[in-house]
Amino acid sequence: MSVVPAPRTREAEAEAGPHQLLPSPRRGQSGRPREHRPPALAPARSAVHRLLASVSANDRKVLALYLLTRAGIWITAYCTGWLFTGDGRAKDAPPLLSRWEQWDWSYFVRIAQYGYFGSPDGSASAPPDNREAFFPGLPLLLRAVHTVVPSWTVAGLLISLVAGAVAVLALARIARLHLAAKNTETGEGDPGEHAVFFLLLSPCAVFLAVGYTEALFLALALPAWLAAKKGRWPLAAVLACCATTVRISGLFLAAALAVEFLTATGLRDRLRALPWLALPALPAFAYTWYLHARTGDWMAWKHAQERGWFRQFHTPREAWQNTWDSAFSHAQTTGYAFMFRAELVAMVVGLLLLARLLQRRRWPEAAYIALTLWALGTSYWYMSIPRATLLWWPLWTGLARWALHHPWIRTAYVCLSAPLMTVLAVAFTSGRWAG
Asked: What is the tens place of the pLDDT at every residue in 166-214?
C-alpha cells in the first residue's frame, strides 16, 4: 500500500531552502550534474531564420522559378555535350564543365590568373590579346572566389548563380514597385514573378548562367536602381560604382540615376546627396589611368575594343547597313548571318522600347536605354545587342505590365521565346556562338 505524501504548506516551503524547491539536475554517467549550455549553433540558426523570414512567399516563388530554369539550362548543356561532340565517331562526351568555357570566358580567366599584361611563363608582358577591353570587376571577384574554390570554371559559375539570384529578387521588387497599382486593379498575380519569368525565358538567358558579366552586373545595378527609387542615394551610388567595375554599362546606369535624381520630386531636400552621383564614374577613371600607366595610351580600352570587335565609330545608318548586308548578302557563314539577323531584331526591340519609355515620360529609363543603343549601334556593325537585352530591366517590367492586362501574353511568350532560348543555349555550349 503506497502512502501519498502530504502536500507542503506555505510554512514548510518557507523552512525548506530554495535548493530543495528546484528540480534535481540531470546527472551524467559520472554522477555529476550536467551543466546547461546553450546550443553552439543557436546564433547561426537564428540568423538563418531571420533571413528566411525576410523572404516573402512571392520571393520564394521567384527563387524557385530561378532554380528551375538553371536546372533546365544545365540539362541543355549536358545534352549538347553528347549530341555535338565535334567528332561524329566520338564514344564519349567532353566534360560537362567544358561546355561553359567558351568565348569571353578565356579572357576573364586570363585576367584573373595573370592580370592584364602577365603571361603563363611569368614574364611581365604578354602578347597583345585585347584583354584590356574587359573591365576588372569580374576577374577580381573570380580571383577572390578561386582562393576557396579550386576550379576556375566552378568559381565563375558560382558567382553567376548567386548574382543571378540577387538580380531576380531585385527585378521582382522593382516590378512590384512600378506595378503595384496595376496589380491591384487586375488581380492577375505577382508582377514581380511576371517580370522575372520574362527575363529567365528570354532568348539570351543562357548568359545569366555562364561565368560572364551579365548576372553580376544585374546583381549590382538593379539593387542600385531600387535604392534610388526609394531615395537611398548613397547606397544607390555605391552599388552603381561597383556595377561600373564590371561593365561600361555602369556609366549608363549612373546617367539614369542622375536623371532620376533631377526629375524626382523634392529636389531641394536631396541636394546634400548630389556629390554621391559622381561616385560611379570613379572606376572607369581609375581603370583608364591604370591602362595609361602601363601602355601610355589614354584610350587603351577603346582601342582594344576596336582591334578585337570592330567597334570603330560609324554613324547609326552605316552600322545598320553593314549589319544588314552581313545578315542577308550571303557573304558570311550561316552562323554569323543568323546572329547578325538577331542583332537587327534586338536593335528594333530596343528602339521600340525607347519610344515607349519616351511616350510614358520615363526619362531615367529612357536615358539608360538610349545610351546603350548609341554605344552598341555606332560600331562598324552590331554586336552583342541580344545579350544586352538582359540588362534592359524596363523591357521586363514593361512585359510584366502587359501580361497583367493580357494574361495570354505569357503563353505566347513561352511559345516564341523558349525555342530561341534553347537554340542559343545549344549554340553557346557547343562553341557555335557567333555574336
From this structure: 999 999 999 999 887 555 444 567 899 999 999 999 999 999 999 999 9
Core vs surface per residue 268-300: b (16+ CB within 10 A) or e: eeeeeeeebbebbbebbeebbeebeeebeeeeb
Q: Which residues pair with 309 in a beta bridge?
A: none
Q: Which three cell numbers stand for residue 375?
A: 554605344
Please state the domain count of the chain.
1
- Angle, helices 191-200 vs 393-405, to 10°: value is 120
Task: Please indicate, yes or no, if residue 366 is contained in any of the structural domains.
Answer: no
For the stretch 399-431, pLDDT in tens is: 999 999 899 999 999 999 999 999 999 999 998
Residue 229 lies in a domain: yes
Q: Which three cell numbers stand for residue 266?
A: 523634392
- Give the residue among 206, 235, 214, 205 at the shortest CA–CA distance from 223: 235
Q: How far is CA 86 from CA 38, 158, 222, 383, 431, in A?
A: 59, 27, 39, 26, 10
Domain carrying residue 272: 58-85+92-296+406-429
Cell of 352: 521600340
User: Cα torsion for 217, 162, 230, 135, to the nearest 10°?
Assistant: -20
Give the amino acid at 52: L
The answer to whether the beta carbons of residues 260 and 248 sit under 8 Å apart is: no
As a whole number of angstroms, the distance between CA 299 and CA 153 comes to 31
- 27 DSSP β-pair partners: 33
Domain assignment present for residue 16? The answer is: no
Let me know if residue 39 belongs to a domain. no
For residues 238 and 253, the answer to whether their CB atoms sit within 8 Å is no
pTM: 0.86
Instruction: Identify the bridge partners of residue 33 per DSSP, sorted by sequence position.
Output: 27
Q: CA distances (Å), 98 to each of 13, 74, 78, 328, in order?
A: 77, 12, 10, 33
Whole-number mean pLDDT of the chain? 87
